[in-house]
Amino acid sequence: MQLTDPIADLLTRIRNAHLARHKEVSIPASKMKAEILRILKEEGFIKDYIEEDKELKVYLKYYQGKPVIKGLKKISKPSRRVYVKAKEIPIVRNGLGIAILSTPKGILEGRQARKENIGGELICEVW
């Protein structure tokens, strides 16, 4: 089955797993998805992830029984790509969330891209 937007699929699977209170979720692997999950782990939104047999297994994080991730929003879509300059990178939920960008230096978190003065394609926002 060919997906038209694998990143939207990643975000949807994480969102659905949180709603069902699962501890983990499996996602078909790709380098871009692994980089997005690396950022989510560094920022404390997920416990961990591992790659095994062309799948990424994501271990979800909860705090007092509630999901740490309150919301996931895909910004750039296949039908409408959204590009931003370094000064236009949004501050998500007054700094409580993160923006994830695809830049010439790879997949970066919004604050890091702003610090390095690099713009790129705005992939998603997580809070």
From TrEMBL:
InterPro entries: Ribosomal_uS8 (IPR000630), Ribosomal_uS8_CS (IPR047863), Ribosomal_uS8_sf (IPR035987). One of its GO terms (cellular component) is cytoplasm. Keywords: Ribonucleoprotein, Ribosomal protein, RNA-binding, rRNA-binding. GO terms for biological process: translation. PROSITE patterns: RIBOSOMAL_S8. It comes from the Bacteria. SUPFAM superfamilies: Ribosomal protein S8. GO terms for molecular function: rRNA binding; structural constituent of ribosome. This is Small ribosomal subunit protein uS8. The gene is rpsH.
